[in-house]
Design goal:
The complex is a heterodimer of chains A (538) and B (332).
Chain A lengths: L3 E10 L2 E11 L4 E5 L6 H8 L9 E8 L2 E2 L5 H7 L4 E4 L13 H12 L4 H14 L5 H4 L9 H13 L5 E5 L7 H18 L2 E6 L2 H7 L2 E6 L2 E7 H6 L4 H9 L23 E12 L6 E12 L3 E5 L6 H9 L6 E6 L2 E3 L6 E4 L13 H11 L5 H14 L16 H13 L5 E5 L7 H18 L2 E6 L2 H7 L2 E6 L2 E7 H6 L4 H9 L5 H17 L1
Parallel strand pairs in A: 3-8, 3-9, 6-7, 7-8, 13-18, 13-19, 16-17, 17-18
Antiparallel strand pairs in A: 1-2, 1-4, 4-5, 9-10, 11-12, 11-14, 14-15, 19-20
Chain B lengths: L1 H30 L5 H6 L5 H10 L6 H14 L1 E4 L4 E4 L6 E2 L4 E2 H36 L4 H15 L2 H15 L15 H35 L2 H8 L4 H31 L1 H6 L5 H10 L3 H29 L2 H4 L1
Antiparallel strand pairs in B: 1-2, 3-4
Classes of the chains: A alpha/beta (538), B mainly alpha (332).
């Protein structure tokens, strides 16, 4: 019997059918990825494998067998033995997935004791053993740490250690690397790969990231609206997709190894030689004082020209957001200066606008989107209500929404639409520079592609200079003329996008690029080897 | 652990500063009021000679900071009061002299404090056990009949004044059923068993009202914790519901409960007037009301300071406990 056998699974939450007649099987030791965009039902399937919908009011139909347990018919006791014992789950956000009040070792020991008759001491020893296994240095001491004392990558390792504690036959990983930096993501994926080789456990990977799937599994199941779109070996599905949706999905994935998708039709005012709009010299920002002082941005100088896109790429903590905020004037630098049109500037300037990462929290939920977009107009002294409305309508239409959306509220829009509202708001001030801080990282790939295309269009039409801050190397390559790579508050490499990506000079840039998941499984294996080499060098 | 000790020390220092600020404010509010302070302090039946003497003892001719300095001196070093014929020594911590009852305020408070503390400590145990217990139960049984019943009872508890609960308890338990004699305060040091029996009804009636607030708070914060991701993790690892509720969810509810408890404890030391009056307990609350009625200024000031002291100490203890429960607090 297969390790996992799902037949005609349906899961309904009230009126909503999240999973609709899904069937698949996973053999002992094999790896399958459920790939889909948000709302495709992939996480719901993962939860159903452990019977986590029981008692939540969701209606589950069809049959689910995991490691010899009939999940739907199992008693509560049998279900408890399955959960963590025979099949263990790793979650997306490793910080919130661990209890903040207890030491990590104690949490793992608790889970171990649920499934074995081990003594407290033995369980604690087992916890240290698995923490050591997943590569936590000094595991004895670190097992006494609480989750907040771990970095994101270490927390995810700890969760994987918890999963390993009872030697389950199946590991379910629900977006295990989505909250992590790309180099850390590569480490975690490599760890999963090694563990699978060593323990022979099956892996069910749930992810929105096709690259992550290509790196880690043998088989892919593409989901959309709760149904299976395409299912097959990873090379076939990703290499030669037979379904239109799969092709669309793959087409939307930005590739780090492809040159800029839509080269500028209008000459970018002769490439990088357009006149400089925004210049930063020796820019620095220190947070905190005395012993706790932290140099978020340190001696950064850069120039942004009219009509060009400057990509700023870096991992979390690299200072890229702080830099972006200083360029806009939302944050005062502690060193250096920002010049706009050749004049030293302090404070905000309507001509330099910002688009924020999270389109949910960056719009006031209690005001209509029209009112939000009208803010910059009113701030400039426009009092005529008719003109304000007219201009907002125009802007809404310009970003691909409808003028009639003026009176709607943010919650009535999808993520991509909300980001369009954010862009409209930035445009309302007739800016010459827009700093986009992770503008697409909260969006699905197909939506991401649309928003990126919109930004490109607006740039060409209005001659805007764009600063594109992001952690996603592929997206940055897709949009940027020039790229700046940041690490620990400093610029480690700068140059034309193609040059930086094709022949990086800095070792860190090389590591970053090697960590990006490849869409081709063979390429992925090659990169895994390359990462090992780079890791030896460092 | 050094971080923790540092945190506790910082918190203790904060407590001292707060107490100092309270003493200044209380002193200023009561002694710099318009009107003849000496006359007010001495009481309405004082002769002009007595009033003059009081004015001298309070150093009313000196500037404010000198007067406050004398007040502080009394608090830390003690002070001598001349009553015309004899000199009375008031040893530290001296909160002054009640000219109306001719007693030292410190002695007066020390006589009442054990009663109040007995009442509040006992009641606190009852309200914590009852309140947190009910809260946990209703979070666990959410949506079921038993939870609705519990919610109903706690709502009724919040809505019922202490003199109603207390009176009903008195009439039923002592009057009708004659299970207990009518309460009369017995000191803990005299007879611990009688102490407890006599305080049982006051504890219950004070605690029942407070317990309701704790039940609601515990329920709300437990439900909040139960919705968090880490609870899902432990469910997905087969950890039983009992552990999830008792170990993980309850821990999350700990902090707000500690905070509320500190406020309620501190407040009840001086604020359980109704309970004290109803059961004839000669505590701080009763004495304070009396002192206010007859405008016995030194007693009022002393009482307010002592009550402030308990509120501040209870909050400092709560903060330290909070840090023990959640180490992340130490970081901030």
């Amino acid at each position: 019997m297969s390790l996992v056998e799902v037949t005609d699974l349906t899961v309904e939450f009230g009126e909503l059918r999240a999973v609709d007649g899904l069937s698949f099987a996973l053999e002992q030791g094999a790896a399958l990825a459920l790939v889909g965009e948000s709302g495709s039902g992939k996480s719901t399937v993962a939860s159903a494998l452990l019977g986590l919908h029981r008692g939540t009011g969701a209606r589950v139909g069809g049959s689910v067998h995991v490691a010899g347990t009939d999940v739907r018919a199992a008693s509560d006791e049998e279900l408890r033995r399955l959960r963590g014992g025979k099949a263990a789950m790793v979650f997306q956000d490793p910080l919130s997935s661990l209890d903040p009040y207890y030491a990590i070792g104690d949490q793992i020991a608790e889970v171990y004791r649920v499934h074995t008759r081990a003594s407290r001491r033995a369980a604690r020893a087992r916890a240290v053993e698995v923490l050591d296994r997943v590569g936590i240095p000094d595991a004895v001491r670190r097992s006494r740490s609480r989750p907040h004392e771990f970095s994101g990558g270490m927390r995810q390792r700890a969760l994987i250690a918890m999963a390993l504690a009872c030697e389950p036959g199946l590991l379910i990983a629900d977006e295990p690397t989505t909250a992590l930096d790309v180099t850390v993501q590569a480490q975690i994926l490599d760890l999963l790969h090694t563990l699978r080789e060593e323990t022979g456990m099956g892996l069910l990977l749930v992810t929105h990231d096709v690259g992550v799937a290509a790196e880690s599994v043998d088989e892919v199941l593409v989901m959309r609206h709760g149904r299976a779109v395409e299912h097959g070996a990873v090379q076939e599905v990703l290499g030669a997709p037979s379904e239109a949706y799969t092709r669309e999905l793959l087409g939307a994935v930005p590739r780090v190894d492809a040159a800029r998708v839509a080269p500028q039709e209008v000459p970018v005012s002769e490439g990088g030689s357009g006149e400089p709009v925004l210049e930063a010299t020796g820019l620095g920002r220190v947070f905190g004082r005395g012993k706790r002082a932290f140099n978020a941005v340190d001696d950064v100088s850069l120039t942004i020209h009219r009509g060009e896109t400057l990509g700023i790429v870096g991992e979390s903590g690299s200072g890229k957001t702080t830099l972006g905020r200083m360029l806009v004037g939302l944050l005062e630098p502690t060193a250096g200066e920002v010049r706009f049109d050749g004049r030293v500037r302090s404070g905000v300037d309507p001509a330099v606008q910002m688009v924020f990462q999270d389109p949910v929290s960056s719009l006031n939920p209690r005001r209509s989107v029209g009112e939000s977009i009208a803010d910059p107009l009113r701030a400039r002294g426009e009092k005529d209500e008719g003109r304000v409305r007219g201009r907002v309508r125009e802007l809404l239409e310009r970003v691909g929404l409808e003028g009639a959306h003026y009176d709607r509220y943010p919650h009535e829009f999808s993520g991509g639409q909300r980001q369009r509202v954010g862009i409209a708001r930035a445009l309302a001030a007739d800016p010459r520079v827009i700093v986009c801080d992770e503008p697409v990282s909260a969006l699905d790939v197909t939506t991401q592609a649309q928003v990126v295309a919109l930004l490109g269009e607006l740039q060409r039409e209005l001659g805007l200079a764009l600063v594109f801050v992001a952690h996603d190397l592929a997206v940055v390559r897709q949009v940027s003329d020039r790229v700046v790579v940041m690490r620990r508050g400093r610029i480690v490499e700068e140059g034309p996008a193609d040059a930086v990506y094709e022949s990086p000079r800095d070792l860190y840039t090389k590591q970053l690029l090697a960590a990006v998941p490849a869409l081709d499984p063979a390429e992925a294996a090659r990169r895994r080897a390359a990462r090992r080499e780079l890791a030896v060098v460092v | 652990m050094t971080g923790f000790v540092g945190f506790a020390l910082r918190r203790a220092l904060g407590m001292v500063i707060t107490l100092f600020a309270i003493s200044v404010i209380v002193y200023v509010v009561f002694y710099v009021t318009p009107g003849n302070v000496a006359q007010i302090t001495c009481g309405p039946r004082c002769s002009p000679a007595q009033v003059h003497q009081v004015a001298e003892q309070l150093h009313l001719d000196d500037p404010l900071y000198v007067r406050y300095w004398h007040f502080l001196q009394g608090l830390f070093a003690g002070q001598d009061y001349s009553t015309g014929t004899a000199v009375q020594h008031c040893s530290a911590p001296c909160l002054g002299l009640s000219y109306q009852s001719d007693q030292q305020v410190t002695q007066l408070i020390l006589a009442k404090l054990p009663v109040s503390l007995s009442l509040v400590f006992g009641a606190m145990v009852v309200w914590l056990v009852l309140g947190v217990g009910t809260g946990v139960l209703s979070a666990w049984r959410r949506g079921r009949l038993s939870e609705r019943l519990l919610t109903g009872i706690t709502l009724a508890g919040v809505a019922t004044p202490v003199f109603v609960i207390g009176l009903v308890l008195l009439i039923v338990v002592c009057g009708e059923l004659e299970l207990l004699p009518f309460p009369q305060y017995v000191a803990l040091t005299d007879d611990p068993e009688q102490w407890a029996w006599n305080l049982l009804l006051p504890w219950l009636s004070l605690a029942l009202i407070e317990a309701a607030a704790f039940a609601r708070l515990t329920r709300a914060s437990m439900l909040e914790t139960l919705a968090e991701d880490h609870i899902r993790t432990f469910r997905a690892y087969g950890v039983g519901e009992r552990s999830i509720i008792g170990r993980h969810a309850l821990r999350g509810a700990f902090a707000p409960v500690i905070a509320l408890n500190a406020n309620n404890f501190g407040g009840a030391v001086g604020g359980a007037v109704l309970t004290e009056t109803l059961f004839g307990l000669p505590g701080i609350g009763q004495e304070l009301v009396h002192a206010v009625n007859v405008v016995d200024l030194p007693v009022v000031v002393g009482m307010v300071l002592v009550i402030g002291f308990f509120v501040v100490v209870a909050n400092a203890v709560a903060d330290v406990l909070y840090a023990v429960a959640d180490r992340r607090v130490v970081l901030t």
